[in-house]
Amino acid sequence: MEKSFVPLVSVIFAAYNESIQTKTLLESIKNQTYSNIESIIVVDKKTTDDTYEIAKKNSNIAFIGGVERSENRNLAVQKASGKYILLLDADMVLTKDVVQECVDVVNKDLEIKTITIPEKSIGVSFWAKCKAFERNFYYLEENSNIEAARFFEKKAFDKVGGYDINITGPEDWDLPERINKIYPKKFKIKAHIIHNEGNVSLIKLMKKKHYYAKLAHVYLEKNNIPTISAKTVYFLRPVFYQHWQLWLKTPIISLGTIFMLTMEFIAGGVGFIQGLIKKEFNL
Questions:
Q1: For residues 159 and 177, what is the distance between their CA atoms, to the nearest angstrom?
Q2: Comparing C-alpha atoms, which of 24, 17, 150 is closest to residue 77?
Q3: What is the side-by-side order of every strand in the sheet holding 92-94?
Q4: Burial class (CB in 10 A: 0-12, 13-18, 19+), 54
Q5: Where are the domains of the chain?
Q6: 203 Cβ contact list (under 8 Å, min separation 6)
Q7: In sequence order, which residues have a C-beta less than 8 Å from that of residue 2 and are 6 or more positions away?
Q8: Residues 234-241: contacts with CB within 8 Å, 24+ apart?
Q9: Fold of the 3-199 domain
Q10: What angle, rounded to 10 degrees, do the helices at 251-280 and 202-213 form?
Q11: Disulfide engineering: 197 pairs with which of 108, 128, 269, 272, CB 3.0-4.6 Å?
Q12: Alpha-carbon gap, residue 195 to 199, rounded angstroms
């Protein structure tokens, strides 16, 4: 492959007290079949473990950022030298061909500015297994509207102003949707990301959904998305019904997943209402 077809890719992620995950993700970046990569890590300033020391030792660029993910990601992209950027979370691991497949796609079609990389979850707890079961439906969907793009042309990222720092959670949807309004062509590769849910509890999943939902109204209003839609209500997502046979194969996990999604929906609904009240009364 000639040098002109080997663009630099900046792989970026933010980390908070995730030393083990940071090391594992960095190893998966180094093991990519595509070699022209730089790794950039922004560490949450409230981190108290040795995440920063590990990041500094094992990456091209590591620095201390703020406390909000969107702002930290934008800061990291500013430091990136790559033509393309791949934005991840610290609890992810790349399978070996992810970057190569993304580069192959954009080399063949320069009109593609966003690429979705499917995710498969792993974990040791019952609820991690339920989350993995849920994500498997999105993995099977060829053009998933739930999985957000993570690979972008840097110029396109900069053109839309990067992540909206007023959104936490739905920013993963908001950014590619804004890019796709200008550059409609998009793609989903075959190689996947492994998302390590670890020993996650139902309470932790609910707290996460509650926190993210507090600013969901900003995302919905900005993108003219109805409050009740497949984006906000799990049980309105067609993919769950298109692959209905999967629910019959593992009855216990299926029932657990339905209960988990119900509890996440309730937690998210409470957070959403709290966000609206805060906005209405300017709290």
A1: 13
A2: 150
A3: 92-94, 193-196, 119-122
A4: buried
A5: 3-199
A6: none
A7: none
A8: 234/134, 234/261, 234/264, 234/265, 235/261, 235/265, 237/137, 237/146, 239/137, 239/138, 239/140, 239/141, 239/144, 239/146, 240/137
A9: Spore Coat Polysaccharide Biosynthesis Protein SpsA; Chain A (3.90.550)
A10: 30
A11: 128
A12: 12
Q: Quick check: 14 and 91 in contact, CB under 8 A? A: no
| Token pair belonging to 151 | 């690979």
Q: Report pLDDT for 2.
A: 38
Tokens 């959403």 -> residue: 272
pLDDT of residue 44: 92
Per-residue pLDDT of the chain (283 residues; tens, 9 = 90+): 334 479 999 999 999 999 999 999 999 999 999 999 999 999 999 999 999 999 999 999 999 998 888 999 999 999 999 999 999 999 999 999 999 999 999 999 999 999 999 999 999 999 999 999 999 999 998 877 889 999 999 999 999 999 999 888 899 999 999 999 999 999 999 999 999 999 999 999 999 999 999 999 999 999 899 999 998 999 999 999 999 999 999 999 999 999 999 999 999 999 999 999 998 887 7
Cα–Cα distance measured from residue 179 to residue 182, given in angstroms and rounded to the nearest whole number:
6
Which of 195, 164, 199 is closest to 178 using CA atoms? 164
| 2 neighbors 31 (Cβ within 8 angstroms) | no
